[in-house]
Amino acid sequence: MKKENFIVGRIKSIKYAFAGFFLLIRTEHAIISQLIIAGVFTGMGFYFGISREEWIWQILAIGLVLGTESLNTAIEKICDFIHPEYHQNIGTIKDVASGAVTFAALTALAVGALIYIPYFL
Ligand SMILES: Nc1ncnc2c1ncn2[C@@H]1O[C@H](COP(=O)(O)OP(=O)(O)OP(=O)(O)O)[C@@H](O)[C@H]1O
């Protein structure tokens, strides 16, 4: 098989990555709901006039949750593809993948609390 030109290969990878990105934000309810939450927090950021440093932490927290949720979605799709029927191991794999999202979400919750609680005091 002919080896692809480096630049062409990278451009194609970026194209596929964006195809996945748009697929996620158009079709995945978990991603859409987290994007709505991200939008609410972005609005709060502007409303309270949070600092540059707080914006950085908030953006990182949002990216962490959305990135983890996207990988969780990919794992769910692999599970459903390789074993659509009920299986205890598939259940455990999916639960563990969701557990990763919970880690990210709790981290984001802590970041959000540290940023916004002082504005309410
Ligand atoms: N094939 C299966 N075999 C065993 N248990 C399953 C199977 N599919 C799903 N489950 C169980 O149901 C839970 C939810 O699975 P599902 O694929 O619906 O994910 P979800 O988190 O509800 O999806 P979404 O992220 O789209 O909201 C899993 O965490 C697992 O415990």
Automatic annotation (TrEMBL):
Cofactor binding remark: Mn(2+), Zn(2+), Cd(2+) and Co(2+) support activity to lesser extents.
Subcellular location: Cell membrane
Active site: E69
Pfam families named among the record's database cross-references: DAGK_prokar
GO CC, any one term: plasma membrane
Binding site for a divalent metal cation: E28, E76
GO-annotated biological processes: phospholipid biosynthetic process
Cofactor(s) listed in the protein's UniProt record: Mg(2+)
InterPro entries: DAGK, DAGK_sf, UDPK
Name of the protein this chain belongs to: Diacylglycerol kinase (ATP)
Residues binding substrate: E69, S98
Organism placement in taxonomy: Bacteria, Pseudomonadati, Bacteroidota, Cytophagia, Cytophagales
Positions of ATP binding: Y16, E28, E76, E85, Y86, H87, K94, D95
Topology in the lipid bilayer: Multi-pass membrane protein
UniProt keyword terms in alphabetical order: ATP-binding, Cell membrane, Kinase, Lipid biosynthesis, Lipid metabolism, Magnesium, Membrane, Metal-binding, Nucleotide-binding, Phospholipid biosynthesis, Phospholipid metabolism, Transferase, Transmembrane, Transmembrane helix
GO MF: ATP binding; kinase activity; metal ion binding
Protein family: Belongs to the bacterial diacylglycerol kinase family.
Transmembrane segments: 21-49, 55-75, 96-119
